[in-house]
Predict the 3D structure of the following.
Amino acid sequence: MTRDNLKSAFAEKDVNSQYKLVDSFLNDEPSLRDIHFVDQLIRNEGKGAEKSVRIALMSSYTADSMIPLIRVELFKRGISCEIYTPGFNQVSQDVHNSTSDFYKFAPDVTILTEAFTKLSSSKVDDTDSLVREITSSTQSRVLINTLFPPMHLANGLMDHGNAQGELSSLRAVNQGLVEIADKTKNVYSFDLASLVSRHGELNAYSPKLWYTSKIPFTSQFQQILLQQWAEMIRSFYLARKKCLVLDLDNTLWGGIVGEDGLSGIKVGDSYPGDVYSLIQSQIKSYADQGIILALNSKNNINDAKEAFDNKRGMQLTWSDFAAIRVNWEPKPRNLESLAQELNIGLDSMVFVDDNPAEISAVNQVLPTVETILLDGNPIENLNRVSELNCFLDLDLTDEDRQKTQIYQSQQKRSELEENATSLDDYYQSLEMVATIEQGRLDDVVRLTQLTQKTNQFNLTTRRYDEVQMGQILESDDWVVVQMRLADRFGDNGLTGLVMAEASGDILRIDTFLMSCRIIGRTAETAMLSYLNQQALDLGYITLRGEYIETAKNAPVADLYPKHDFVEVDQYWERPTATPLTSPEWIQVNQTQAQVESSGK
C-alpha cells in the first residue's frame, strides 16, 4: 500500500477500518518518515477512537521523537491521545509544583522514565515521592520504567564481578522501583532494563543521539519500546481478547497425527518436539491468566484425543479446552459455532493456524477474528505465541483466572437445558443461589472491569475506571448493587452490577449490566427486585432506567418494559411501591445496604 492509497482509503473508511489500514501500512519495519506521515494523517483525518487518553510522558531524557510513535501505536489499538511533556529535566519540578502545567493537563496515564546517569542512594525514595504526589493529586495511573544500564561502565568488565559496582547498584534500585509499583494502587512497573537486554545494548543505544541530543535510543528501539507501552496503556482501557482458538497439526505438535500416527508427531524431549512442548506451556499460561482455550482443527476427533491422552511430552490436556471443534467443517463455520457456544463475540477471538489458506478464509469470512499465521519454523512459532500482547491484563481477578472452568460448567448447563421438559424445570434444576449486596470497595477492580468489558447485557455501556468506581462506591448519592451467582455446576463469581444515582425522589439507574455467561437465567429480575426494594426502603418514589442502543446490546432492549417500566420522555420508569418479585427458582442471599442518599 502506497501513501497515496492509504490517504485515499483513510478518508473513506470508518474508524475500525482506519486502525487496520494503519496497522497494514506500518506492518514491515516502517521508516520514521512513514510514521510521521501516518501521525499527520491521524491528526488531520483520524476519526473518533473507542477511547481517548491523556498521557504525560515524564522523561529525564529528550522524548519529543517518541510522541508521533505513541500516537500511532495507540491509534492502531483503538485509542486516540493527547500528550504532555515537561521541560528538559523538569520532571521533579513539575510534579512537586501543584500549579504546574502537568496538573492543569490532568493526565490519565503518567509514564515515568529516566536515563541512567549517576545513581544516588535516594533514587528509590525520590521516585516514591513523585508517585505519592501524582497519585494523591490526580486520578492518573502511573507507569514506572526501570532504569536501563549505562552506555559505558566506568570500570568496564571489572564492574560485572563487583558487588559495589554500577550494575549491582542498578539492580538494587530497579528492585526498589518494582516494589513501589507492587505496593501502590494504580501504579505499574515496566522492565525497560530487561527490554534493552533482550534486544541488545548495541541495538538499543545511540551514543551519537545521546551526546548530541540527549536521546538514548535508536529509532528502531524506540518503536519497540513504544509498542510495549501502547500495549500496557491499551490494557488499562480496552477489553483484551477472551479466547485463543488453536489448530492442532504443526501448531501444537509437529506433523499430522492422522497421517504420521501417534508415534510420528513431534512433541517432547528432542528438537523440534521440545519446542512444541514449550509452545503448549506458553498456551497453558494464557489459560492460567483467564484466557479461554478452544480447538478448531480438521482431524478425526479420536486421533486428536488420543494424542492428548497418550503422547508423552504433551503439556496441554483435553480438559484444558472449554470448547472443541475437531471435524471436517470449514474453519470459519467452526469459529462461529464456538463463539455461539461460548457466548462471546467473534472480535474476542484469536485464531492460530499454520495453513495460509485457512487463515485467508477466516480473514475473508470473519474479518473481526484476529488471526495468527505460524510458519514451518517452530522456534519462530514459539516467539509468536509468546508475544500475544492482546491477552495482556494488568488487573487480573479471581473470575479471570477461572474462565476455563466457568465455561466448561456452562457446557453442562446447556446439556441440562436441552434435556429439560420446560424452561421452568430447567431453572429449578439449576439450583441457583444469588448473593446480592451493596457494592464493596474490596471488589473495585472486578466492578471496574465489568463496566469496561461488558457489552451484550449492558443497558448503557458507560465505562468507569477504578478511581471513579471507588468514588461512586463511597458516595452518599449513589446506590451500588453487586451480585454473585452460583448453581449446581459451580460459582460464576461476581457477574452483576447496578449503579443508580439519586435525583430528588428518583433513583436513576446509570449502569445495569451482567456478564454474558449468566444471560438467560433470569438473574436480572432478582437484581431489579432487590434494587426496587432498596429504593423503596430509602424513600425513593420512582425507579428510572435508561437504554442506550449499541451494536451489541440489542438483546436487552426490552428489559425495562418486561419488568413493568413505562416509557417517559426517552426513559423508563416504575413506582417503587409496586412490588417486583424475584424468580422463585433463585435463592437470594441479601445483605441490605446501609446507605442513605443525600437529603433522605
Q: What stands out?
A: The radius of gyration is 27 Å.
